[in-house]
Amino acid sequence: MKLNFFEFITVNSPIRKFVQNKIEIKSFLDVPNYVKDGKVLEIGCGSGYGARLINKYFKPKEIYGIDLDEKMIALTKKNKLPNVSFEVGNVTKLDFKDRSLDGVFIFVVLHHVVNWKKALDEIYRVLKKGGQFFIEDGSFETFSTPIGRLIKTFTDHPYDSMYKRHEFFNYLEKLGFKTIKKQVYKPLALTSRFVYIGIKK
């Protein structure tokens, strides 16, 4: 789904970049990096700032960024790098060959997707054996917290179909991912998010 006006402004704010740089990407750095010199995909790339962080910390050879929102892709020229390409794309129908990528990254995007199981099917399909999946996101539980309830009044999310954490983790195991990190964060009990890193068996 595409973002409403409030969400569009929020994800392109300096605060969002600060959080992505100081908190989210750092959550991915305490496991072995198997994507160095490889090909990786960022799903929901937004303006391209996440790709810059992936390039800085993981050193892949090529980065592909996709986003469903054409307005976001138009902003990526501000974050253009020689080894990065951006295009409009849908996570439930990825335009990549089977077993063609070394890594897939998602920063707080998948909870927007109605058919999240189909999205995970596609991610599993395009990853090589031994490829890494990195995701930092919210879940149904996030929007039951004090901050989550506030966010709910300003944003459009598919709450009726949104995954609960245990459903999400169980489906990844069913697909064939080996978990190397699974952690839930609840800062001051005001909100919640999770980090998952897995390897395709």
From TrEMBL:
GO MF, any single term: S-adenosylmethionine-dependent methyltransferase activity
Top-rank taxon, per record: Bacteria
Pfam family, one: Methyltransf_11
Ranges for domain Methyltransferase type: 41-135
PANTHER family in UniProt: METHYLTRANSFERASE (PTHR43591), RHODANESE DOMAIN-CONTAINING PROTEIN (PTHR43591:SF110)
Official protein name in the record: Methyltransferase type 11 domain-containing protein
